## 1
Amino acid sequence: MKHKGGADLRGQARAPLFEALARYLGQDKAAFHTPGHKQGAGIDPDWLALVGRGIFRMDLTVLPETDCLFQPTGPIRQAQLLAARAYGADRSYFLVGGSTGGNLTMLMGVLFPGDKVIVPRHTHKSVIAGLIMTGALPVYVHPELAQGWDLILNVCPESIRRAIAENPGARAVFISSPTYHGVCCDLESIVKTSHLGDRIVMVDQAHGPHLRFHPSLPASAMESGADICVESSHKIISALTQAAMLHMRGPNIDVRDLESVLLLTQTTSPSYLLMASLDLARRQMALRGREMLDRAINLAQEIRRAVNRTRGLYCLDAPDVAPFGFDPAKLTVFVDGLGLTGYQASRILNRKYGVQAEMADWDHVAFIISIADDAGSRDRLIGALRGLARDHRPGKGKRRHKVKFPSNYPPMSMTPRDAYFSPYRTVPLKQAAGEIPTEFITVYPPGIPVVVPGERITAEAVEYVTAMRRLGAIIVSPMTRGSDHIRVVA
Ligand SMILES: Cc1ncc(COP(=O)(O)O)c(C=O)c1O
């Protein structure tokens, strides 16, 4: 497999969809179609006064000049072809519902009810949602944990090999790589093992839209030989929020099945702003990705070194996660040495220093460095973290907030689909250990479900959710609507 051959630069200086929209704006057309604001004319005046009319003029719809996402023959087709070339895929598809929609599409495009699929247990909840929709049977694989930190790393090839040996009939292997913290699997080994039995390899690469474009980053899913992947182009690179892509390569994916699922999972009114942002983000990465990512990686390494010279703080680094791969642009800063939880530190950084982190956990705060950062933002983050450490001197025995992410999961009692659609009764969470849930509990971020339909709730999970709620984590479940009850199979 050829790694980091760089994007195929043929035609990459073009942005066909963006150019088509720009051309359309130059024409004097009277709009008698959606969206109802008619290129900004009907937008609330307060909004217009704040941001101007420009962006609204481009909020167009399916027109002969702008093409149709579901039967592309013009600029959208050309834009997707250029994306496929840049990403080393056979085909690429624009997504307007994030990697969430992409994961649903991937699972529905590949799996049939009753198919076995090997899935890491630390997967995003959209993957479990896909299992509910398909009726596939998950074989959960447990991720490795970091030595010395309460941090989920990722799954190793050996765990996948074992799961395949125990489930030789599994039709597919699903991998999430990189994680929220930038920890990447040895995808090439996993793909080799999985392909031996003609299993399809699907990758949730939500956090890796940039991997392809820099030689020092871990290999992307397409470079590693995966059959299909999704990525959130709105993370790290410059597409707008919700914009994502799906790539496929090789003979194992039935393109007709995949394209018919895209008709079901995508809105019939995809945003042309989102799609144009995908076209431009691809062009930017293909032409300038290496240089822009060089800068982002260097800035991240400078921040990492400064943090690791600051008493009471520690920033995760590549050797800490070896032999897993690592994306250094993810900064995971442990603050428990200051006697603070990640939530407390994140609040202080926001209120006192005007620095907004990506996420917090009980013992760390995570920051994303992207192609948009510069020396100014680097210095601001370093200054804020040093200030935090000055205000909260490290002290003996201050590691008092320890809350462990549950690591023991019982075998699945029912498929996610059967549990989700089962008759239910409602019980208080604190009495729910041993019950089979019909719904999720997810701690946000990173959005990994602690409780999933079909898998018995453990006392450890109840304890974790209760503790995380007390610490100020966002708990996404029906319980957030003011109840502390959960639905379990009757
Ligand atoms: C691993 C993983 N997969 C999928 C998603 C969903 O991505 P999106 O927000 O683009 O829908 C996320 C979101 O953070 C994620 O962390």
## 2
Amino acid sequence: MTHNPNQEFDGIRQADNPLPNWWKWIFVACVVAALVYSIYFHKYSSWEQDVAYENEVKEHEEKFPKAIAVTSDDGSNPLRGNTNAIAEGEKTFKTICAACHGPTGQGLVGPNLVDSEWIHGSSDSEVYATIMKGIAFDKAKLGRGPMPPHENSLGSEKVYQVMAWLASQNKSLKASR
Ligand code: HEC
């Protein structure tokens, strides 16, 4: 069978005409533009994936410092009684923790944080660990949801601020055991 460019099947004719020149030139122009752009982008522009990633990480770490900005020798909250920290901590509590612990810390799905009952310890170092590391869901203890970790989302300084506010609301939160 010889190749017939203008086949006809069931009354439908398939034309095999060359593409219009204007179409071909747009196609060629697109290919050239893509080549030029990729060479420019990878060789001559200053944007690099690694650098962009590192910059974003740096930005995040500046906002939420992971390293302990403030420390004390005995593990107690170094921001205890600090008026600024208490005010900042209250703001953080109301935006982040209140969803689970209630706007005044009276408890919701998460336990009451302003009474004298502490499941995971009532000293600054224990409460700090609880908030930073979170508490995994435990099937054996029905009714208790997980408590999310905050070491990456808030970082130590913001957590100490929240604890400064908590200590101002709850005298049973002790500096040390
Ligand atoms: C998604 C809900 C949720 C959020 C958000 C949350 N928590 Fe919790 N939290 C819980 C739950 C549930 C528990 C109880 C875990 C358990 O005992 O198994 C808990 C436990 C705690 C405890 C231990 C209480 C005790 O009696 O020992 C502290 C302290 C605490 N949360 C503080 C915070 C702070 C501060 C924040 C905000 C930075 C926060 N939580 C955000 C759900 C949450």
